[in-house]
Amino acid sequence: MRAIPGTEEIIECDALILSVGLIPENEIAETLEVQIDPRTKGPRCDATLMTTVPGIFSCGNALHVNDLVDYVSESGETAGKNAAHFALGKERTLVEIKPNENILYIVPQVLDIKEKNDEVVVYFRSKEVFDKATFRIIADNKIVFEKKYAFLRPPEMEKIVADFSKFNLREYSTITAEVEVDAK
Ligand SMILES: Cc1cc2nc3c(=O)[nH]c(=O)nc-3n(C[C@H](O)[C@H](O)[C@H](O)COP(=O)(O)OP(=O)(O)OC[C@H]3O[C@@H](n4cnc5c(N)ncnc54)[C@H](O)[C@@H]3O)c2cc1C
């Protein structure tokens, strides 16, 4: 994206269409002092889509940039349902999901281990274009979820559903997410 001096040229045209990256709109989240993930540029959330500020939930493009509106509706439903549940009163114990260097971002970034966590919807994007790669979530050295991909591309958001309920997670547990490029 750096112009090479001397190569600029002017092209006459009637219209110009720009295809540029989007970032979440987070003015409101920032005024509420919600922690922002530098990877997604949206709030850090657990699987209930609650941010780092108890009682504040995030969804849709404010959470991370979704490519399809169906994911936006889905996350709106999740956040709404969990906000109603939270209003009844509960405490959280959060464990971070640490992405490896091949992952651009992952949502949720933390897991509330007091939740059931049997159907955790996870969104991620790879950092680069990878042919033949494996996405894996590991909790305390055990594989929670694994899927092979023919390719992964950063513009395409991936969605998986992971079941953490059998892994007896504790506040000191380690959860990592990795994209491993398969040997050719
Ligand atoms: C060019 C383009 C093409 C797309 N094409 C498709 C497609 O073909 N199919 C598909 O499934 N998806 C498509 N998408 C993606 C889809 O449009 C988005 O994922 C979806 O609209 C996001 O919904 P949202 O409700 O989270 O955010 P938005 O639709 O952005 O809605 C947020 C609303 O909040 C308002 N707002 C912001 N700040 C404030 C504030 N402080 N106070 C009050 N209101 C505020 C905004 O004005 C806006 O109306 C496309 C997106 C773009 C940009």
Please give the share of residues in helix.
10-25%
Number of strands: 8
Could you say which small molecules are bound to this protein?
A: flavin-adenine dinucleotide
Major sheet details? 5 strands, mixed
**What's the Cα radius of gyration?**
19 Å
Question: Quick check: average pLDDT?
Answer: 93
Description:
This protein has one domain (27-181). Helices cover 13% and strands 29% of the residues. The protein has 2 helices and 8 strands, in the order ααββββββββ. The chain has a 5-stranded mixed sheet, with no helix packed on it. The protein has a 3-stranded antiparallel sheet with strand order 2-4-7, with no helix packed on it. Strand 5 and strand 6 form a beta hairpin. The radius of gyration is 19 Å and the shape is globular. The model has no long low-confidence stretch (mean pLDDT 93). The structure holds flavin-adenine dinucleotide. The site of flavin-adenine dinucleotide (FAD) has 11 residues, from helix 1 and helix 2.
Quick overview of this protein structure:
The chain has helices at residues 27-31, 69-87; strands at 94-99, 103-107, 110-112, 120-126, 130-139, 142-152, 158-162, 175-181. By secondary structure, it is an alpha+beta fold.
Q: Keywords, please?
A:
five-stranded mixed beta sheet; globular; binds flavin-adenine dinucleotide; 29% strand; 2 helices
Write the layout of secondary structure elements.
Elements: H1 27-31, H2 69-87, E1 94-99, E2 103-107, E3 110-112, E4 120-126, E5 130-139, E6 142-152, E7 158-162, E8 175-181
Parallel strand pairs: 1-8
Antiparallel strand pairs: 1-3, 2-4, 4-7, 5-6, 5-8
Bound molecules: flavin-adenine dinucleotide (FAD).
Flavin-adenine dinucleotide binds at residues 22, 25, 27-28, 60-62, 66, 68-69, 72.
